[in-house]
Amino acid sequence: MNLASMNLSTGDLSGENVMQTVRTLGDMKGLYADEAARAGMPQDTVLYRTFWAEGEPEGTEGALLYGTTVLEPGLVGDEFFMTRGHFHALRNRAEFCLTISGEGALILMDEQRRTRMERMTPGSLHVAPGHTAHRVANTGSGPLTFLVVWPADCGHDYEEIEKNGFSRRLRNINGVPQLV
Ligand code: NI
To answer: Which residue(s) pair with 144 in the sheet?
Structure first.
């Protein structure tokens, strides 16, 4: 029996143990440079939906967990819609990512706060190495969907990013996505 099935057009996962988490603009307070712009938009605007399958319990050493994310297109001020971003609580844990559809960027920042990005296009494969914070931004005009696989024991440290952010942001500069 397979674990779950992915709709390759929409990124949706379906199956017995599939759960869905929804993040709205209202959940992203303080994460965009232009907080006034974010606060002025409808707070129930859906930014992204994450589908994940309940498998091995979180924290199980050696186990893998996986999920898909559907990130909507849009801007807060001149900053592309993006996920919150995190380090792994166990800093040496890496993560794998496959772009299914859409256009975007995987934004990576190491512990010296050096930030770079990898372009995401359908079929592109990426690794967020250990000791590296990661977030995804949608630079396209349609939804960006991707599959992520992570170690079940990695844990998620969102607080560090909520507090100090990434050192650079992905902005729409005259129609061109640029890390600023
Ligand atoms: Ni991660």
So the answer is: 71
177 forms bridges with which residues in the sheet?
Answer: 172
- Output the CA 134–ligand 1 centroid distance in Å: 6
pLDDT tens, residue by residue, 94-122? 999 999 999 999 999 999 999 999 999 99
pTM above 0.90, yes or no: yes
d(CA 87, CA 114): 14
Centroid of ligand 1 to alpha carbon of 88 (angstroms): 6
User: Could you tell me if 136 and 71 are in contact, meaning their C-beta atoms sit under 8 angstroms apart?
Assistant: yes
Task: Give start and end residues of each alpha helix (H) in the chain.
Answer: 35-39, 159-164
Report d(CA 156, CA 87) in Å as an integer: 6
Strand partners, 160: none
